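Board notes, transcribed. Complex of a protein with 5'-O-[(L-methionyl)-sulphamoyl]adenosine.
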Amino acid sequence: MSIGKFYITTPIYYVNDRPHIGHAYTTILADVLARYHRLLGDRVFFLTGTDEHGQKVQRAAEKAGISPKKHADETVVRFLELWEKLGITNDSFIRTTDGFHKDIVSSVLNDLLEKGDIYKASYDGWYCVTCERFFADKDVVDEKCPEEGCGRKVERLTETNYFFRLSNYQDWLIEYINANPKFIQPDFRRNETLGFLRNKLNDLCISRPKSRLAWGIDLPFDSDFVTYVWFDALLNYVSAIGYKTDDAGFNSWWPASYHLIGKDILTTHTVYWPAMLKAMGLPMPETVFAHGWWLIDKCKMSKSVGNVVNPIEMADKYGVDEFRYYLMAEMTLGQDANFSEDSFVRRYNDILANDLGNFISRTLKFVEGNFAGKIPVPGEYTDTDNVLRATASETIGKVEKYITEMRLDLALGSVAALMRDANRYFDHEQPWTLAKTGQTERLQTVIYTSCEVLRVTAGLLYPVMPVKMDELALMLGVSGGAPDINGLRAWGGLEPGIAIGGSKILFPRLKNEQVPTVAPKKEEEREDLIDYSDFAKVRLLTAKVLSAESVANTDKLLKLSIEVGDEVRQLVAGVAKSYEPEQLIGKTIVIVSNLKPAKIRGIVSEGMLLAASDGDSLRLLTVDGDVPSGSSVQ
Ligand code: MSP
């Protein structure tokens, strides 16, 4: 088990930006990792903040007719409020305009000047205002910024500036990267940086003349200049934890375990930053991890296209925890991922409403209905109980392993798989039959086992959905709050006899309003063809047959009791000539769930099952594999 320290950072965001899903993603990811490491018993420090100097802020402030600091004070609130809304548990929030940070930047500049790593020279080259970076002639084609995702027009500039001897560190850096494969992750990003380092590095221009940019930290040795925004910004990772001001604190956190970044800021973090740290005599961060970008309906997000996703709107529409879950489960770390509300609704319904939600409600329904709302005392465990217990315990191990490998998608996938196994266990053990046939002790064991699996699940998903999993813990009758891994590992955390907090639906199914557009009818179209919208009116769902019995005075009809997600319904079906009632119990069938109820021989039928007919013989439509009842059939 991992017990150590875990220091994680996000990029510090440009303060004048409106936070979008990309910002929200990195910060939620850092939060989820921080919470998982707390669960594993690590000592955690989680840092985020805002990048407040530079041309963009200066220009935005000029436009607004206020000072850059006032502008930053006004816009930083958007980030602070968003992190609060999204449940972010950062230990510190750094602003590069904080006094202590500015002092440390000055002090580092003095150190490096003294060491001979900073010199003054005249520069002639291309400059991108947006990226706030200089580029050599060889890197610029058609006067466009070569930064990934930028491509804006660059300006020609000739001016005297201060330079950091980046080139002195090139050979060392290549060697370091090769010797430390974990330093840049994923592997293909390491290769990208090594590719970049195949060309000779220029020294890094680290100043801007005040005549061109006043909004920055003064160079302590030349007040006509301010420092380059990236030099200032990167130092936040050490200034925030006490570099030069609190040695004990600093040494207890540095080096960082992870700098999380987006792929567009790889060079600054894997070339400039390590060279700066080496010059300062500090050890390297353990890992710089570059994640991919969120694309919107497969396109790049951009203000001009108007497809920028506002995380507040998403959280308001679907819920904070549901949004956090989707972002974490949908992106394979390192790759780009596609964001769409359709895929959100699909993932939510499949995993949260079906696998998890269904298991919660069917389990708690038995605690309420059969044990007066109290956790039952388990009897002797059978092989099937033990298999599920073992799966729950293996899932804890898998989550721990995947988290340390940065495979969050797989960690969440393994918890979803546990829920599917638990639902299968429930189907197999048929607690409704145990109740009906008076096998009380066996029923107690099955329901206790199910409750314990839910307790483990609530703990494993807590870092991603803290509010919902707190609610689940309370529903199980235990106090919520951050779980610890030893508590999850110890089977029997739920005390038999304690009252549960009641059952409610945590993840109601969502309807997807986005129906694909239908092509207009052509005249030559066949009369019998229907529009998609006609088909979409028929809601087909899977259902599980709980019980079946013959209907008096007919040899055709059976009366079925079926489970459809959280509901139990009654259905009358004309399949008696093809099936004995017992043959149907436990089968997963397909029903039309939104048919108006009808009375057949005086018995109400809520829906219709589907079957293939060959003359008098009927064969039921069923599904290939295990799916929970209430799953949609499309
Ligand atoms: N201020 C610098 C970082 C300095 S760190 C010492 C900066 N800020 S930013 O606000 O422009 O970007 C912050 C992060 O947002 C970057 O990691 C960037 O990759 C990320 N994203 C911007 N758009 C994104 C997506 N569409 N998807 C995912 N992340 C994206 O750069």
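Confidence is low (pLDDT under 50) at residues 514-527. The pocket of 5'-O-[(L-methionyl)-sulphamoyl]adenosine is lined by residues 11-14, 17, 22-23, 25-26, 51, 233-234, 261-262, 264-265, 293-294, 301 (CB under 6 Å).
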